[in-house]
Amino acid sequence: MSDRSVILNLPLIQPSQAQKHVTHNEALVQLDALVQLSVESCSRDVPPPDPLPGARYAVGPSASALWAGHANALAVWDGAAWRYYVPRVGWQAWIAHEALMAVFDGTGWVDLSGGGQNLTGIGINRSYDATNPLAVSGAATLLTHAGAGHQLKINKAASGNTASLLYQSGWSGRAEMGLAGNDDFSVKVSPDGTGFVEAMRLDRATGRTDARHLRSGAVDIAPDTVGVIPTPAEGGLMALAVVTPGAPEPAHTGLFAYRTAGGPALMSLAQGPSIENKGAVR
């Protein structure tokens, strides 16, 4: 019959053994040290100067002084001397100094959370899934600065991909804004979550605004040449300002109505002193 247990290496009482209580008490002491394992630290290489009875440490990899020769062992101060126990792969312990759970992997103690890196997902008040590795359920989500400003970054792999914010009603999309399929910033709306209509686009190169009934921009026209002013397709009103760089006179302005159905038409409604009223122009 073996005199030690297989897993925890506890001493076993032998047949016809004298002073059985000694072996029994030794096993209880060892169980008291290893069950519900919690250690002060897993990074110390030398023992503390004044440990209290019951103090437990996971010895560091470069053990020295009284701990020399016991690297990665569990050291327990019994009030008179250090007792050492060799951990097995898979043992878990609470590391009080770092406030984390760790597992022994055969060479050292490893944070069970992986240090917060490369996690599969996080669910806060709900479960995450493959599509939504970060899932939060609550009345609000707060992102704030750490002493200065704060940026929320949404990145995409290529121009043809999407980096956007999608607003839903009953899990059905109703509005989306961001870089949707190109690198211009756009705002889209939907009545049913299936078809989206682009309500506004901001050109990434010029910053010009293009909306279904609103467009802003500038056209550079050389002297004695013709310029083309793009307009939304449905027709509407256009405010025009003509500026000659370097000229002392103020900008000349006008307000025009236009339509495109049945052929383009432009009607001046009001104009400044230097924009002649030509009436309907086709």
Quick recap of the structure?
The protein has one helix and 18 strands. The protein is mainly beta and 282 residues long.
Helices and strands, with pairings:
Elements: H1 20-34, E1 38-39, E2 56-58, E3 74-77, E4 82-85, E5 92-95, E6 100-104, E7 109-111, E8 122-124, E9 134-136, E10 162-169, E11 172-180, E12 185-189, E13 197-202, E14 209-211, E15 236-242, E16 252-259, E17 265-271, E18 280-281
Parallel strand pairs: 1-5, 8-9
Antiparallel strand pairs: 2-3, 3-4, 5-6, 6-7, 10-11, 11-12, 12-13, 13-14, 15-16, 16-17, 17-18
Care to describe what's here?
Helices cover 5% and strands 30% of the residues. The chain has 282 residues and is mainly beta. The chain has three domains: 36-114, no CATH class; 151-212, no CATH class; 218-281, no CATH class. It has a five-stranded antiparallel sheet with strand order 10-11-12-13-14, with no helix packed on it. Strands 1-5-6-7 form a four-stranded mixed sheet, with no helix packed on it. The radius of gyration is 38 Å and the shape is rod-shaped. 6% of the residues are buried. Residues 277-282 have low confidence and may be disordered.
Distance from N terminus to C terminus (CA atoms, Å) equals: 110 Å
| Strands, count | 18
- Biggest sheet, in brief? 5 strands, antiparallel
Structural class: mainly beta
Percent strand: 25-35%
Instruction: Name the helix and strand elements from N-terminus to C-terminus, one letter apiece.
Output: HEEEEEEEEEEEEEEEEEE
Radius of gyration: 38 Å
| Overall shape | rod-shaped
Mean pLDDT across all amino acids: 86
Helix content: under 10%
Total separate domains: 3
Low-confidence stretches: 277-282
Count of individual helical segments = 1
Strand order of the largest sheet: 10-11-12-13-14
